[in-house]
Amino acid sequence: MMYPYLFLPLAGLLLVIFQTSVLNIFFMGRINVEISLILVIYAGFRMNVLQGALFSFLLGFFLDCAMGSISGLFTLIYVCIFFISVLVSIRVYAEQISLIIGFSFLCSIFEGLMIVLFFKIMYDINMLGSIVQVFLPQALVVSALSPLFFKLFHFFEVSFHDGNPQPAK
Amino acid sequence: MMFPKKYWTITLASLLILAALIMISYHATKQDSDTGFFRRLVLEAAWPLESLKNTSLKALRESWDRYLFLIGLEAENRRLRKENHLLENQLVQYREGYLDALRLRKILKLQEQLDIIPVIAEVIDREQSPLFKSILIDKGTAHGLKVGLPVLSDQGIAGRITECSWHISRIMLVVDVNSNVSVLLQRSRTHGVLQGAGAAGCRLKYVPKAEEVKVGDAVISSGLGGIFPKGIILGVVAAVDKKEGGFFQRIDVQPSVDFGKLEEVVVLNPQKDRKP
Question: B215-246: b or e for each residue (b if 16 or more CB lie within 10 Å)?
Fold first, then answer.
């Protein structure tokens, strides 16, 4: 079926735009509520590897474009998080809420560390302070919202597959 | 299949990570170059939603600003209204003060002309019956007043004291039906008696038909009778009728004093005790 390959990028693009424009209003631009990150983790837990990997790649690219960051930064991070999620989902039962919350938190922190590291290596900019100020609150918000969005994504998946979602790995 | 199935995931991951790294490298080396095609595509795709969001936000912000503006406007309006009210009150007070000063100046002028001791009194009550017209003033015997003293306003003769208590006196106005004042017509020097007619004003009596009286002629006190000083205005001729039977003509006089608006009067007390 070609539908997922057409529908998912469009949905991902809309999600990224919604996330970077509308959602940021509620947090006054101080915290970036990364629903796209939750979606990448969801894709790692639920979707097949090829589809999920491409989707994560595109989501990262869209986020790079939408946020005006360096092309490939979020693409790289999302691809990495997707494959980490795939690895985790193979080894543990990925339906537990506590696991979703904890893993989302860790992924968000990982993302922050990647960004800090990237800027340190590329431009020799020290962004360690922003881990506590930006990435930690962001990770808390993302992890708190992750169960809700997992349910929401599941609902969409069920609707998309006519009531037959892909089982958790 | 080119790769064994168990390496498929690793291969895919490596390819995607490599692609991302190439993108980063490309971006790092070509920082000044134009925006890439795909990036432009994403930006273009984002435009309608961004535009919608901005329009909505703008409308929301404008509504909010308008709401805040209206709240501010309402508060300012309330403040300005209060300020306006305060200023109006002040203006009324100043106007009152100005009018008081004008009246008092006239009264003082009168005092200089008549060589009397004026007692300025405030009107505290009015008798409102159609025929009997009197007022109460806030001065009495304690202030040197006594029955019979003439009472003037800045517009002319008002009446005379008919009752006198310690601190209150009653003034019979010239329009009271019991009031009779000896007067003369200023232009023709014709003598007569001005009798009160209640709400109708006054009537000048005992002026023979042979005398020429014109509407608008000033009626002044004659000084006869010893109550009112001579030459103070009482009113003007409003109507003359010679057709009535009898020896005298009927003359209606419009009092010079507006009794409805009388607020202060001056009682003329002859200066018997004044040293030369």
Answer: eebbbbbbeeeebbbeebbbbbbbebeeeeee
Q: What is the CATH number of the domain that holds A24?
A: 1.10.1760
The separation between CA A31 and the C-alpha centre of its own chain, rounded to angstroms, equals 15
Amino acid, res. A122: M
Cβ A71–B49 below 8 Å, yes or no?
no
As a whole number, the mean pLDDT across chain B is 82
- Is B6 inside a domain boundary? no
Contact A14 B49 (CB under 8 A): yes
CB B9 to CB A71 under 8 A?
no
Q: Which residues of A touch B38 (CB under 8 A)?
A: 61, 65
Does the interface ipTM go beyond 0.85? no
Residue span of the structural domain in which B52 resides: 36-114
What is the predicted pLDDT for the residue at B3?
56
Last residue of a domain, one of B80, B96, B114: B114
Using the Cβ of A61 and the Cβ atoms of chain B, whether some distance falls under 8 Å is answered with yes
Same domain, B175 and B50: no
- Cβ atoms of B167 and B140 closer than 8 Å: yes
Residue after which a domain boundary falls, among B58, B88, B114: B114
Please tell me the total count of domains within chain B: 2
Q: Alpha carbon of A115 to those of A13, A16, B97, B223, B270: distances in Å?
A: 22, 18, 80, 113, 108
Residue B36: its chain A contacts at CB < 8 A?
A: 71
Does residue A18 belong to the interface with chain B, where contact is any CB pair within 8 Å? yes
> Do residue B56 and residue B100 come from a single domain?
yes
For B24, which residue in chain A has the nearest alpha carbon?
A72
Q: pLDDT tens-digit profile of A80-114?
A: 999 999 988 888 877 788 889 999 999 999 998 99
- Residues of chain A numbered 79-98 and touching chain B (CB < 8 Å): 79-80, 83, 86
In this structure, is residue B16 part of a structural domain?
no
Q: Is residue B25 part of a domain?
A: no
- Determine the average pLDDT of the residues in B171-176: 89
Q: Is residue B78 part of a domain?
A: yes
Q: Please tell me the distance from the alpha carbon of residue A28 to that of residue A9, in angstroms, as a whole number.
A: 27
Residue pLDDT, tens place only, B73-127? 878 888 899 899 889 888 888 887 888 788 777 777 766 766 677 888 888 877 6
